[in-house]
Structures are given as C-alpha cells and as structure tokens.
Amino acid sequence: MIREEDRTSGERVLTGVAVSKGIAIGRAHVLKSRDVSVAHRHLGPADVPGEVDRFLRAVDQSIQQLQHLREKLTEDHEDPLSILEAHQVMLRDELLTSGTIRRIEEERINAEWATLKTTDQILQVFSHIDDEYFRQRRSDVQFVSDRILRNLVGQGDLSVHAPPDAVVVARDFSPADVVQLQRCAVAGFVSEVGGLTSHSALVARAFELPMVVGIEQVWSQIDKDSFVVVDAHEGTVLVDPVPQTIAQYRSRARDLMVLERSLLQDRQLPAETTDGVRVILLANIELADEAQTALEHGAEGIGLYRTEYFYMSRSTFPTEEELIEDLQSVVLTMTNRPVTFRTFDLGGDKAAQLFRLHPSPNPALGLRSTRLALEHRDVFKTQLRAMIRSVNGGKLRLMFPMISDVSELRAARSILDEATIELEHEGFTMPSQIAVGIMIEMPSATILADDLAKECDFFSIGSNDLIQYALAIDRSNEHVAHLYRPLHPAIIRMTKNVVEAAHDGGLRVSVCGAMAGEPLYALVLLGIGVDELSMPPAALPPVRRAIRQISYEKAAAMADELVRLPTLLDIQQALARFVETEYEHESVTISEPGVRLPWKHRPVGRKSSN
C-alpha cells in the first residue's frame, strides 16, 4: 500500500471500487460516448411487417457479430466466451425480441423506438433487485439492446481499439469491449459504471487486467493522454502522478507480481497447517467456464455452483436438457473432484417476472429461495432431475439455500425423493451417492443446527446473508453498509455454534460467503473448526499460504479468545496482536482495518516449523 504521507502534491486521486486486482500504469485512452441517436416514428398499417423484418435482421446481425468475436477468441482464452454466448441467448429471448415485435405491431412505432421502450421496461425490473449480482445484469440487457440499436441505425461496427499499454477510460464497458481491448494489450480499465459482479469485471478478472469502477463522470476527470496509475488493490486512480509516485507504484507492481507467482507455485499443495490439520479449499463459481479458472488457482473442487443464471432474463423456464448440458460441463471439467450444486436462490426481486411474482416491499424477507421452490414444485423438480442426471452415475452433492427449520428441509427432500424415484422408473443411471446439504444463512438455522444436522449430510454457512440477517444490515444501503462486519461477536459465536452442532452430528462444515476468501477471516474460521472454505478462484492462493504458515493449535487458541470477547474493537485488537506475534515478515493490508497479514515465501514442497 502506498501511504498517503508518501504522495507528493500535484497529482489528483480519484476513488472508486476495485473489481479486478492489479496495478496499471500508462496513458489514458478515453472512449467516446457510443450513445445512439434514435428517431421516434409512427407507422402506417402497411409498414408494420417490414419494420418487424428490419428488427429481426438487426437481431440476427447482432448474433452473428458476437459469434464472429467468439470464434476469433477461442484460441486465445475460453473463460469469457460463455458471457458472449449469454448475450447471444439474450438476443433470442422472448422478453426482448417478442416484446419489441409486439410493440411494433400494437403501437405501430418504429423498431428503434420499440426496442428502447422494451429495454426500459426490462431495466426497471432489474433496478429493483436487491441482490448485487443480479442487479449488475442490467448492464447486460443494456449492452444487448445497444448492439441492436446500432445495427438498426447502420452503425454496426462495434469494434473498439486502444494503443498498447493504455489505460482505457469509459463510462461503461461491455464484456465484448473488454475482450477486444485485451487483444490490444491494454494495461487496465477505469469506468463510472460497473460492479464486482458485473460481467465486464468478470472478463477483466479472467484476463487478469486491473479494473476500477464507480468513479463519477470519469470521462470529464481524466483527459485524453493524461498519465494515470490504476491501483486496483486500493480502488484508486492517480491522475498525472509525479515521478516519485510512479516509481513507488512500479516497485509495488513488481513486488506484487513476485508475490502472485509465488502464491500460484503452491497451488497444488494442500492447505495444511504446520501441525498437520488440513482444510479443503473449494471455489465458488457462477458460470460453467469458471470451473477451469478454479482449477488453475488450485481449487480442490467446487463448493458452490450458483444455478440462478439460467432463470434470469428469460420469459420461459429452462428445460431439463438445457440444465443438464450446463451442469455436466462443470462436472467434466472438474473430473473426479467434488462439485456442489446449489438449487436456485431466486425470488422476490430475482426472476420475478418469470415466476409471475408480485412486487415485495422487502424482497430479502419475501418469497425467495427454497420457499419459492416449494411453491413451484414442477420447476424445482426439473432442476433436481437435471442435477441427478448430470453426474452420470457419479457422486452428487447438492444443497438447499435459505433453510430456516427442519420442516423446510424435509419438504425439499421429499421433492428430491420424488425426482429420484421417477428417474429410476424411467431407467436413467442413478448417482452412486447423493449427499444433501443445506446453507446456514438464517439465525433460526444456527439455533436449530443440532436438529438440522440429523437430517442432512453437510452444512455450508452462507456468511453473506447470515451477517445481513443477524445484524439487520442491508448491504446495498449506503447508510448502514459500513456496519456489515464479519468479525462481529455474534457472527463468530453463531459460526462456532454451527460447527460444534455439525461435528457432534458427524457432519463437515464449509463456509462459502465472502469471509472464506479473506486470509484473516480464514484463519479465524480455521481456529473455530471449519472443515472447508469455498471462495472466488483468485482468493485461493493467498488463503492457502495463510493456512500453511500457522499451526491449528495456535489458531484454535486465538479463536477461543475471540469467542469470549464482547465487542468488535476487542476482536480487532486481539487479531492485530495475534498477527504481530505469529507473523514476522513484510505485510500487505487486508480488509479488516488495523490488521495486517504478512506473507512469508516458502520454497515449494517444504514445510516450515512454527
């Protein structure tokens, strides 16, 4: 971290959100606005069929453009291709295409105007979604719509270019923009719009290119050819930095590169403490192609495959065969490693139109997740059948989200039993084993953990929602988001209670929320007794290193102390003392204020004593 007191005056610092880690240094290349000027015209009855045909030709042209881009990229990098494919699917979706055609026919308006009105209607639905991941899908809808509009008005060339080593600045980037610009060997990206879960951020992470988003009116704050430094660890952009600052960042970039290479060297080593206690490290993924990235970062399996994507931005439910194709691709990529499918976590604000749900004043507490699945048994059973068939006789691990008590778990399992019996009668190859888990995300589930442990095979603590519900914190509310604290005494005690109940019942426990992917929190979870940690692929190497440099005995003693402390400040101070005592070398700042965690490089294959 470059300290504020080390900076020299004369440079401007813009603050945003880091969504793809790294440091980029170079000249700014500002992309001009690509807004399309659209005319509004009313049609005569005889003009309607021709206008519909014009719209459909623009859609076909958009699909072909994305296909051409995918074909050019196949040899370079396959990770982002599923996102481009998703945009092709959206172009064929009835919500957008049929909705636009219906407006052309019924309102007798031109294709451009009809496309805009349909897009606005879809965006309104997404804007009210509480979940950040799905709220970011608004951008995908906008990108697809813009592509159609540009083809309608004859501006079909959507290619973007930039000089090598440039820092590209724009209001927003589509995934296709990022894909094309990485081929130009750019250094990084800065934008106003975007988020950690946006598809453009996901593609940037796949290419390991730094990206900072959330800088208001960024195009007016960074001039063309300005020299900039993008610190996508701290979420800052320095405009026209002085030579001293540039030198500091170049040095830091070299150090981080050495560190990252060192961490990746250990990716095949177990996450084992110095006294021989092993923690299984798994990956959370949202798209099938991320499975390969997980392997490249040393994942021992998939601890959470979110299956919601197939239900978003659709007017019809996915078929069993569509689901199987997607699920099987993950299973095949991971070979014999475990893959845990989570049944769809939808409702209230997510896929509301698909399920024909009425708006809820508080979607987080409404009809969602397993509750929604139990209200739509046929849809739920179709997904369960696809999961069973996808493992082709292998071991199936699935888990139900948002389980509040034993009766909900039994109801969900009864539908799984129905699906199993049906498939057996139909002659399909059945899994050699079906392990059923639940996500512990509600305070009620932490209280009833001992009873729940008697009726399932494993627990997975969803720390994100557990913290939100336990502390009454809306993560998307800027006024209280700072109170979202994983190290709150209540969260630590709840986690310990769940682990003890699970172990008493012979179950293993994983944590798959954001806590698992932060090295400091991972040490706390290790000490509490968590068996598995599941996290974004990029978080695996540093968490592995942290675990391999500590003894379980000391981590457990530290956790025992934390459980007895009454305040967050007490816990932070205790952790700071622990880190200072146990780690002696150069440190890097991690997410908890006031606590630094050092990384001591150890040659591959050797185990240090503590």
What report would you give on this structure?
The protein folds into 3 domains: 4-33 and 159-262, Phosphohistidine domain (Glucose Oxidase, domain 1), CATH 3.50.30.10; 45-152, PtsI, HPr-binding domain (Enzyme I, Chain A, domain 2), CATH 1.10.274.10; 269-598, Alpha-Beta Barrel (TIM Barrel), CATH 3.20.20.60. 45% of the residues lie in helices and 14% in strands. The chain has 23 helices and 19 strands. The strands form 3 sheets. An 8-stranded mixed sheet has the order 1-8-7-3-4-5-6-2. Strand 16 (508-511), helix 20 and strand 17 form a beta-alpha-beta unit.
Average pLDDT level: 82
Q: Largest beta sheet, briefly?
A: 8 strands, mixed
Count structural domains: 3
> Can you identify the CATH superfamily of the largest domain?
Phosphoenolpyruvate-binding domains
CATH topology category name of the largest domain: TIM Barrel
CATH top level assignment of the largest domain: Alpha Beta
SS field, number of helical segments: 23
Q: Can you count the beta strands?
A: 19
The CATH architecture of the largest domain comes to: Alpha-Beta Barrel
Task: Give the helix proportion (percent range).
Answer: 40-55%
Given as residue ranges, the uncertain stretches (5+ residues, pLDDT < 50) are: 1-8, 586-591, 598-610
User: Globular, elongated, flat, extended or rod-shaped: what is the shape?
Assistant: globular
Radius of gyration: 25 Å
> Strand order across the biggest sheet?
1-8-7-3-4-5-6-2
- Our measurement of the CA-to-CA distance between the termini, rounded to an integer number of angstroms, reads 27 Å
Structural class: alpha/beta
